[in-house]
Amino acid sequence: MEQKPYSNIKATLAIAKASFRSIIRSPSAVVFSLAFPLIFITVFANIGGGGPSVDVAVSKTCDTNNVVYMALKKAAVIHLITNQTTEQMNTSLSRGDIAAVIDIKKSADGSAAYSPMPGPPQMSSTVLNVQYSNASAQTGGLFKSILNNVLYQINTMMNPKAATVAQVHETTITGRKYKYIDFLLPGMLGFSLLSSGVFGTAFVFLSLRLTLVIKRFFATPVKKYSIVLGEMLARIVFSLLGAVFIIMVGHYIFGFTLIHGVVTVLNMLVLCTIGLIIFMGFGFVISGIAKNESSIPPISNIITMPQFLLSGTFFSTSNFPLWLQGISKVLPLTYLNTAMREVAFEGAGLGDVTHQLLILAAWFVGIYAVAVRTFKWE
Amino acid sequence: MAKQPIITVKNLVKKYGDFTAVDDISFEVYEGEIFGLLGPNGAGKTTTLEIIETLREKTSGQIMVDGFDIENGVDSIKKRIGVQLQAAGYYPNLNLSELIALFSGLYGVDVTANQMLEKVALTDKAKAKYKDLSGGQKQRFSIATTLINNPRIVFLDEPTTGLDPQARRNLWDLIREIRDQGTTVVITTHYMDEAEVLCDRVAFVDGGHIIGINTPDAFIDELVALGFERKKEVKAANLEDVFIAKTGKEWREA
Q: A54-158 domain in CATH 3.40.190?
């Protein structure tokens, strides 16, 4: 009987195909890799958008026809709240939920209460009562300077002849706005790769081992490396398709910046692959040390949670105290996130992020050295 | 017809630490027969089988499978045998066609799923998941995966355990068909009625030793010659015959 030579490539691809089919039919893989990142992006991109906002409650006795009130209403940053009762306002203020409570009234004696300069007789003078809280000192301070600015403008309008101490010339340069989505999306990609790599790999290899699927494989001429490579290949293809989808949604719906278009996307995908291979290493280690399927989530969370929180996924690590920054400077996801942001927003090539790549390479060597020792076939 | 040994096991020993699971076992399996390994749980049947299947390392001894030494012919042996494991699962979330496609990739052969499923009468289940099959269907599917590489020998480890009488008979027919097409079958079972009707020769294994090898008929005659009598008078039929007579031979799918 004539036989074709045995092809390890064919065997590897057969496993990759089977694994890929299995992944796309497993709800948890799809939820972790696609749904979670997209939900996070939708929620956080909408919360984070629009810059700072200052909530100011308007007292019930406030004169809403006053020129000062009108000016405040037009200020973009200020959000006037008129539907709260006096008690609610007091609670909100003492908790720091709002920046201030204002009450604008016509001056009883007819003299200007705020402006030190004598105004024309037809100008109605105004009394401004502003209550601040030390619970919201920051937004309160912001409101104070906006208020001063508004009053200064009104005063100059009313007294055009008044001597000006200084003239202000304002210009605005055009720049690329670093939107929150530009920060958030690479972090979400990293999170998606981390969970798929760690949880997915650990679950697959443990369950294939426990259900004797791997043992049955060993009764065929397949090589061990074909099994590992086939599984990795399937997960990489699935995660990269997911990454492309997330990037596309981010770009077309949320305005995620792709500075060099397709080239940027390709660079990001290379980084995704590198990151995923490292995270799969953690998965291999966990599949080896876990005794059963229920011990996988706790062990995996020990690996993923610190990186999720400390690697600059949702917010920059530069706000952390130094000791915490020290921890985040060790984690691989930090470097993947940084490299990804450099590539996407700054238009860096892979050659510009060699520092990050070197640290990821060190993680690769380290984690696979451990994986080779802990991984179990039977 | 001169009987050609296709498997030769000589002085096989398997130790797990201080425990000797297989203790100096020797036997031959002839080409084209159904050979049964019989014995109580823990006798060393599965261990012996898995060493021959190249899934476990032996401690000592010599094994030849279809002309290849287990020491250096592992890859050649794997291409020539089909293995059904006790309680083995299949890749999750795949249907039967996809599983056959996976295994044909693993064996490096080109077969269509339909072709293989036809051999075990499961073509109408091509799109079903393995976990949704009945016990008998699962076993038939397992046997289909052992036939993908057109093997010289198939090993079946307790294929009928847990099946109802109809499914069991259905599987016997399938195993005989495989033998009749020239494939040697090595089987383990706890059912002596099954070994009696199915196996051409059987070996009794206990405590890691082989106690005897012969045809089922010869063993029974031997015991009867020693003056053995059943406590109960033997009737022309037994209860299983009644079960089959009353419920029909037709095999139930569900």
A: yes
